[in-house]
Description:
Strand order of the largest sheet: 6-3-2-1-7-10-11-12
Shape: globular
Number of strands: 12
Largest sheet: 8 strands, mixed
Low-confidence stretches: 182-187
Amino acid sequence: MDKNELRKNGIERLEALQKESNKKLEKERIIRCLLVASQIWKEAKVIGMYRSLPAEFDTKWLQKRALEEGKIVLIPKSLPGRQLAFYEVDDHTEYKQMAFTIEEPITNKFVPKEEIDLLIVPGLIFSKEGYRIGYGGGFYDRFLEKYGQKTCSLVFSEQLDNDWQPEEFDFPIQKIFTDRLERGADQ
C-alpha cells in the first residue's frame, strides 16, 4: 500500500474514532496517564508539541498540564521551504488558523531546537519501529533530520500499521505511547 492510500485510511480511522467520543476520550486518558508517568515527561523542562486537529489526540490537556508543572511549552509555526520553528506559549497565547486548519501561536518567543528536551510528534500512521506517516508536507521529517533530542508520539491503536516500508528520509520516533501497547524502553 502506498503512503497516499495509507494517509487516506489513517484519516478515515481517526474520523471514525472521533465519532465515538467516549471511546476516544478513554483512549486519550490511557495515553495521557502513560505519558505523564514516564521518565521522558518527568525529565523534560522544555516540550515541543502541536495543536491537534479535532480527530487527532487532543493535546490541549497536555499543554495545560505541562504549564501547570512549570515546563516551557513550545508550539510550531510553519516557515517557507516546509520548515518548522518552535515558539514559547502560555495560557494567554492567542492562535490563528493557518494551512490545513492548523493553529499557530501569535508570538515571537522563538526557541532553538537545541533547547527542546522532548518533542511530541504528530502523525497519521505509525509502525511498531516508530516510523510515521504524516499528512505529507514533510515539515516534521525536515525538523527531525537535525533534531537530536528525545521524541515521542501519542498514538491511538487504530493508527498502528506495519504494512509499509519507511523511506530513507523517514526518522523513527523514539517512544510511542498508545492505548494498546508501549514501544521502547522507558527513558
